[in-house]
Amino acid sequence: MEISSKENTQFFSNTTILPVDRSSFKSESSTSKEKQSCCGGIKIFLGALSFVYFAKALSGSYLKSTITQIERRFDIPSSLVGVIDGSFEIGNLLTIILVSYFGAKLHRPRIIGAGCLIMSAGTFLIAMPQFFMGRYRYERFPSTINSTVSMSPCLQDESQTPLSALEKSQAKINAGCEKEAGSSMWIYVLLGNLLRGIGETPIQPLGITYIDDYAIEENAALYIGCVQTVAIIGPIFGFLLGSLCAKLYVDIGFVDLDSVTITHKDVQWVGAWWLGYLIAGVISVLAGIPFWFLPKHLPKPESRKDSSTSSEQSKFITEDNKDQHKSYQQHVKIAEMAKDFLPSLRNLFGNPVYILYSCASIIQFNSLIGMVTYKPKYIEQQYGQTSSKTNFVIGLINIPAVAFGIFSGGLIMKKFRINVLGAAKLSLGSSFFGYLLLLSLFAMGCENSDVAGLTVSYHGTKWTTHYEQALFSECNSGCACSKNDWDPICGENGVTYISACLAGCQASNGSGKNTVFFNCSCVGTLESPSRSSSAVVGPCQKGNECPKMFLYFLVISVITSYTLSVGGTPGYILLLRCIKPHLKSFALGIYTLAIRVLAGIPAPVYFGVAIDTTCLKWGSKRCGGRGACRLYDSSALRYVYLGLTLVLGTVSIFFSVAVLWVLRKRSSPQDETLSANGERGACGTKSRKDNFVNSDRLIQTTYWPEKETRL
């Protein structure tokens, strides 16, 4: 691996270069050529890495946008969807240490290219169940299906239904059971996401450190900020693609769309979730192509330490370390590299800044990953929005705010030449104010929809206790209804009924989406509860205040997203500057591993389990058993979703304060401010700059050993 502390200042001066094993003299023309080669090389790699970040972010965000679609299509609870989402992190877990440690010493660009191919294969695998499982079946009473058979929704007895119709219906159910019992197609989605995680592994640790190795130190933060900012375009397109596919019926191209009796506003609607994965897979293949033609090393830049602008990292390097780094540039056997594994690991774990910042990040990512994973579901259930509109709003409003925040963080770092201590302050401040804004979202929720037998009684009284036994009432006591059905209709009194049968409807007119039910004994006004009324297919809309609350939610959500994102790039710089250069890839790999294992895997699962506890009405599978949730308690969902996010965020802030305290304790007053010539203070230094610029021997005997043990 190349020495990241050896930055090239030839972009700004005509200083001659003294490369290893070459003549000490170089002509001005050859120096100019090397400058152009180095500059061009890093920019090409920067562009290629940005496109890969775009591709992986697009497929990852598209998965987030299809969470509710996958849940309905495979009829599974949120907790199981969380396991599927976490399988991406499991894939990272399987390979992250090996890739980040050994990959740093091999051909980094080609390893990234191979990862892109694996990532695309996993993306294609996710879409495969659509082509092997049967057509999607949603719950609909026969009267709402285009059929010549006319029957009453309120079945007084089974004789009202023709025998042939009952037999055909039962035969279809039995056939569906046989097929369902022999297949759990969601496993293919899990395995595909697992493969995506394996392919994505080398992109971050190898790509970021490659840039940091060959970029001028003061430009590194801006370059990393640019990569992450361009990567945010991926989620924008990912969620917009999710919005488009959510409007298309899941079996588009396989069935006659005129026969579909539900719309994209129905809670049973499933969009063409599989289509976006095919598009994302093709993009991942294209993104990996440039890396097969990039060099293993760019033209070696001059040492940062020897340049006019001293590197923060060069202050950590002793002569012994330099000799050690030179050996990394030579051919090293895998066995020899393996011997350094445990010492390198001990070195990282002995660094309190690295450990404390990792703990803060792990807890904060638990908060953010859980929040982002279930944000589409939260918006749909809390504010009554469709999947298509939800994804459109997130992609067009929230994601650009995140991009602007990340870019702002990198720009602030470069413009004000902020040192490591300043980066820690900026990261802490963004987290504190971001989670403070999150508190206000508790007041921006909607009340539960009026659903007879679940949130209100059949007489219009709000429920204060639990539910299931109240689905039946005197008004529908004469009907042979099932409590497991979910085929909601909206009564003219503004109350949603779980099915036309439970609404006591005796007749219907029309078919499909235009069906109207009449003589519904349970649909009445409070003034005349005995008067029979009509109802239409589909649930009623949320209250009049809900659209206004949704607007407030969007405004605060955008500001919160921007505020939290400002601290992203300073956090990266803090991580890179507080470890020895030859351990950067390894440190980022361990850091990423910790995020995957302790945040990426468990967060979607326990967030999903917590959200499942707020479900009011579960769907039923064809062969029995609990399916996906049809209706959530809005108030309980708000407190669980936002409360869990806020508690985790608050804990992470305490660890960030500890990081700042350690840095302050080990920093001299001169290190906390920028010097006149623009030098930045070293991470956690205790001695003044003069202690390590005058004598290498002094560095070796006093400064570095202390740095080794205390940081």
Automatic annotation (TrEMBL):
Transmembrane domains' residue ranges: 40-59, 80-104, 110-132, 220-250, 270-294, 354-372, 392-412, 424-444, 549-576, 588-611, 640-663
Pfam families linked: Kazal_2 (PF07648), OATP (PF03137)
Record-level GO BP terms: monoatomic ion transport; sodium-independent organic anion transport
UniProt topology in membrane: Multi-pass membrane protein
InterPro entries: Kazal_dom (IPR002350), Kazal_dom_sf (IPR036058), MFS_dom (IPR020846), MFS_trans_sf (IPR036259), OATP (IPR004156)
Keyword Ribosomal protein attached: no
Residue ranges occupied by any Major facilitator superfamily (MFS) profile domain in the UniProt entry: 45-667
Keywords: Cell membrane, Disulfide bond, Glycoprotein, Ion transport, Lipid transport, Membrane, Transmembrane, Transmembrane helix, Transport
Designated name of the protein: Solute carrier organic anion transporter family member
Protein species of origin: Thalassarche chlororhynchos (Atlantic yellow-nosed albatross)
